[in-house]
């Protein structure tokens, strides 16, 4: 096997385009998953059963359905109901929605990990419920779960190649397209593999350091 540096050079403009799409999908998907996951977690703590039950059913269904199936459903089925989004928007929504069911569990663990004394102190101070959550409970809970949330960001990064299935040209999509057009697979796919390692491995080290700092 001969390594062709010329193919690497020719592929790099496509790689940068794919990297930009990958990071965009990752950033927006992370925002959706973090925000929606917190909403799910709070709704699951409401005393009203008719709220908890539907939320539990929906999140269990999403969590136990493959992301690829959800991508196909949103991209191919929703247009039949006259609900149409761009391929990238569909991918971002699918990733954010899928991972929100996992971040929900992280938030729930963080909230349940807040000492009972904190709840009792807020009650003793006669703090309104909203103030109790925003000033006492959530700041402590979120601080505890930041490393776990970061781990899901890395997982989302590794799942972005699935967007290729709905025509989104992220990194792997660009590599596949270039390989098919030029009949050179080794160089572009190797570049993509190295890129994922260079992004995910330092991020995992950063998360470990952050976790050690937060648990002090």
TrEMBL record:
Bilayer topology: Multi-pass membrane protein
Top-level lineage group: Bacteria
The gene coding this protein: ehuD
Intracellular or extracellular location(s): Cell membrane
PANTHER family, per the entry: L-CYSTINE TRANSPORT SYSTEM PERMEASE PROTEIN TCYL, MEMBRANE COMPONENT OF AMINO ACID ABC TRANSPORTER
Transmembrane segments: 20-43, 83-102, 189-210
Record key words, sorted: Amino-acid transport, Cell membrane, Membrane, Transmembrane, Transmembrane helix, Transport
Family recorded in the similarity comment: Belongs to the binding-protein-dependent transport system permease family.
Organism: Streptomyces mirabilis
UniProt protein name: Ectoine/hydroxyectoine ABC transporter permease subunit EhuD
InterPro entries given in the database record: AA_ABC_transptr_permease_3TM, ArtM/GltK/GlnP/TcyL/YhdX-like, Ectoine_EhuD, MetI-like, MetI-like_sf
Domain ABC transmembrane type-1: 19-207
